[in-house]
Amino acid sequence: MHALARTAPEPANEDMPTEAAAERAVRDIAERLAKLGVEITDISGRISDVTRQLDGQTHGLHRVVTAVDQVSRANRAIEQAAEGAQTTASAVRHGLERVTGAVRQGLNSAQSDIEALSQGAQSISEALSQAVTDAHKVRATPSRPLPAKSSCSRSMPAWRRLAAAPPDAASRSSPLR
To answer: What pTM was estimated for this model as a whole?
Structure first.
C-alpha cells in the first residue's frame, strides 16, 4: 500500500487508555512519515537520474548543433569551391573552343595547301613525263643537220635553246642525243 494512502482509523477502543492511544497514533504517524521520507528520497534519486540524463542529452544536443554548424560551414566552402571550379571550367572550355577552332582552321588551310602542292607536283610530273616521252621520240628520229649556232646560243643553256627554237629546230638540236 502506498504511504500516502489513508487507512480508515480504527475505532476507538474505550478500554485503552488515552495515553496508549496517543502513543499508537504517534507511532503510526512516525511510520508513515518514515515511509514518506523513503519515498521522497527515492523520488529525489530518480529526479537526479533524470536530471543527469537530461544533462547528457543537452550536452549531446550541443555536440550535434556544433557538428551541424561545422557541416554547414563545410558545405558553404564546398559550394564556393564548386562555383570557382565552374568558373574555371567555363574559361577552360571557352579557351579550348577557341584553340580547337584555330587548329581546325589551320588544318583546313594546310589541307588546301597540300592539295594545291599535290596538284602542282602532279602537273610537274605530267610535264616531265611528257618531256621524257618527247625526248624519247626525238631520239628515235633520224639525225638531221644542226642549225648554225648563234653567238647567244653559247650563253643560253641547252634546254632554253630548245624552248626558244622553232618546233622543227627543237627536234634537230636535241641535247639528249
So the answer is: 0.38
